[in-house]
Amino acid sequence: MVIKIIISIVSILLFFAIIHVLLKFIKHKSLIPLVPFKYDFRRRRITFAKTLNLLSERNAKIIVETGTSREGLKNTKGDGGATIVFGKWAQQNDAKLYSVDISKASVLGSQEEIDKQGLNDVVSIILNDSIKFLSTFNEPIDLLYLDSYDYSRIDKEIQSKSQEHHLQEFKVIENKLHKNSIVLIDDCKLPGGGKGKLVVEYMVKKNWEILIDAYQILLIKKGSLP
Ligand SMILES: C[S@@+](CC[C@H](N)C(=O)[O-])C[C@H]1O[C@@H](n2cnc3c(N)ncnc32)[C@H](O)[C@@H]1O
What are the pLDDT digits (tens) for 109-133? Predict the structure, then answer.
């Protein structure tokens, strides 16, 4: 009798353990083969994957990111790890990535992973305010990724400052975008409209089309390559 009870308990525990592992596996969103399976890109996987496809289809050569991967690949679920994702793509496709950040600590954190991944030939991390950097950037941009001024879920003042900052980033660089440029904006589906609220409103008025409206918003120009 006691043995029967023990077997029943063990079976139930085993059942729940298997369900738990299965659910974890289903929820895991990787970007293999570009990045090893263990890294989970969760809510950004859909937009990263589509952006990577577009980069290849459009033969992109210059990528610019505002706000660098301060934790390298350690926080792909939280921050995204875009510097490494796009850096790896750039390395395989003869392209170049510029990633600008105002924080020395973020630059050092990102640079550490760039060194580890052997991406120094294709990725340049720049310590500067993104708006200052973008105002002097002088090459046509194929992918612009906006993810700098940290957003807040609760503080309305930070929300507006972040939204205004991302709008200004776009405005100072928009003349370096061409008809097949791609723009991706992070942290959008958040209370108050997220980082992209003002910039997306502005872009839509200027003939940009939203391709994916998710946690990140992906835009291309109307009438550009499909
Ligand atoms: C969310 S993190 C960027 C994450 C990164 N894009 C990724 O995918 O892992 C935001 C970064 O923006 C930087 N930042 C904040 N204000 C900035 C500004 N005015 N100019 C440039 N970078 C800024 C912060 O220092 C921080 O490192």
Answer: 999 999 999 999 999 999 999 999 9
Q: Which runs of consecutive H residues, i.e. helices, occur in 58-184? A: 82-92, 104-117, 130-136, 156-173
Domain membership of residue 226 (yes or no) is: no
Parent domain of 12: 1-28
By three-state DSSP, how is residue 127 classified? strand
The two structure tokens encoding residue 40 = 């989970």
Pairing of strands 208-213, 217-221: antiparallel
Residue nearest to atom 2 of ligand 1 (CA): 67
Distance, CA of 163 to chain centre: 17
**Ligand 1 nearest-atom number relative to CA 71:** 9
Name the strand (E) or helix (H) holding 144. Answer: strand 141-146
Cα of 220 from ligand 1 centre, angstroms: 23
Is-contact 72 84, C-beta < 8 A?
yes
Ligand 1: residues with CB < 6 A are 65-70, 79-83, 100-103, 106, 129-130, 147-150
The secondary structure of residue 57, as a DSSP letter, is H
> Rounded to two decimals, what is the model's pTM?
0.92
CB-based burial, 159-184: b 16+ in 10 Å, e otherwise: beebbebbbbbbebbbebbeebbbbb
What CATH number corresponds to the domain at position 187?
Answer: 3.40.50.150
